[in-house]
Design a protein that fits this description.
Length: 408
């Protein structure tokens, strides 16, 4: 067998080929792209017998996605995508001096996959549709995160020079189309104070707010309330920044709606979509996010425990002597953890069995977030069983282990 360490950069790959005894056969720097992949095939082919299988080539690289990794998997090589933290720890074993280079990293990766591949997770090829769901769902979530960042900047700026606006638009949201339209129309205290009930009501009507008359009166009253002000020139400067931020938020709102349509379209085509949507607390968008992060490669998760470990919901135990503590996992997929936490929060509101489990945990003095993590961990196990058997969620079956099952 051949063991290849691949230290990748944006435009090139440093690779090292080792035999089963750890002897360095060849090192090379390959360009990114088609030419680089062709040279990679030529490089490893030079050390293989004519009747050798591609699976006799084991590749270790610090990523599990991208066209280069997909090309390696498609060629039939065994590919292991390792966490950079894992690679850094192994590098410390083979280089006590602390020296670091691209060539040295390739050597460490090759040595790592040669000696410890039984402890590493092979890259499993997801379907093209699952990959597409991942692309659009991650883009949709990233846009939402960006909107939140700009909303916080907007709030900070208003607090500095126009605090009355925060009181006026509190019943709405700072990312709402009506709030943004009113801020674009009147970004300064003096301009906002001149807004009439008709102008405010027209904006609220377009946003389908109810009751319009009461909300319009509340907003106008708050905008005309006396508050501490900045000098006029400073206020004008703030108004300019508010205009730019409002324009960005309006664009983000439009693109989030457009990307949501893409998520729904791609997720709806996936054969596992109904299984995901049947889970408590999961809708189309959340289902797409969970599918995107788990992937759909068959055999990727040997059992429910493996899926829970990857999800980051399973706790870790630290024991030394008489000391034994249980902690939440710190290293995890942030997007997946966020989706599962949201699912657990929604599930306790809509599924009686999940709510009963939550109440039981809280009665044992377990905090809210810790209880949601335990619920999420249980829901991941249920999801694994449903996907494995291609069956929809059934409350009775899922919670049959409980002494007193909760009726639907």
């Amino acid at each position: 067998m051949l063991f290849v360490g691949d230290d990748w950069a944006e435009d090139h790959h440093d690779v090292e080929v080792q035999d089963q005894h750890g002897r360095v056969m060849r090192t090379a720097r390959l360009p990114e792209g088609v030419d680089g992949m062709a040279r990679f095939h030529e490089l490893v082919a030079g050390f293989l017998a004519d009747d050798a299988e591609p699976a006799q080539v084991v590749v270790c690289i610090e990523t599990d996605r991208g066209p280069w990794v997909r090309a390696l998997v498609a060629a039939g090589y065994q590919v292991f995508g390792v966490n950079p933290k894992q690679a850094a720890r192994h590098r410390e074993l083979v280089s006590l001096s602390g020296a670091k280079s691209d060539k040295g990293d390739a050597h460490a990766l090759a040595d790592m996959v040669r000696t410890r591949r039984h402890q590493l997770r092979p890259v499993a090829a997801d379907s093209d549709l699952a990959e597409a769901v991942k692309v659009v769902s991650r883009a949709h979530q990233t846009l939402i995160w960006e909107r939140t960042r700009h909303m916080l900047r907007l709030r900070a700026a208003l607090r500095e020079y126009f605090p009355a606006a925060l009181d006026a638009y509190q019943p709405l949201t700072l990312t709402g189309v009506d709030t943004l339209e009113l801020l674009a129309k009147a970004p300064t205290p003096d301009q906002a104070a001149t807004l009439t009930l008709t102008q405010i009501s027209t904006v609220l009507k377009r946003a389908r707010r109810r009751p319009i008359a009461d909300k319009a009166a509340t907003i106008q009253r708050a905008l005309r309330t006396a508050h501490l002000r900045q000098p006029e020139v400073v206020t004008a400067a703030y108004a300019g920044t508010i205009g730019a931020t409002v324009a960005i938020l309006q664009t983000l709102n439009a693109q989030i709606r457009a990307m949501q349509g893409q998520v729904e379209a791609h997720f709806g085509q996936h054969p596992d979509a109904e299984v995901y949507r049947s889970q408590p607390g999961i809708g189309v968008i959340l289902g797409a996010r969970v599918l995107a992060e788990f992937g759909d490669a068959p055999g990727r998760y040997a059992d429910a425990k493996a899926r829970k470990n990857y999800a980051g919901t399973a706790p870790i135990t630290r024991q030394s002597g008489k000391s034994k503590t249980v902690h939440a996992r710190i290293v995890h997929n942030d997007r997946l953890v966020d989706a599962l936490h949201t699912q657990a929060g929604a599930a306790i509101l809509h599924d009686p069995a999940v709510r009963a489990y939550y109440d039981e945990l809280r009665a044992r003095d377990i905090g809210h977030n810790a209880a949601l993590r335990q619920i999420g961990n249980r829901l991941v196990g249920i999801l694994h069983g449903c996907l494995k058997t291609a069956t929809l969620y059934d409350q009775t079956t899922a919670w049959s282990h409980r002494a007193q099952p909760v009726a639907a």
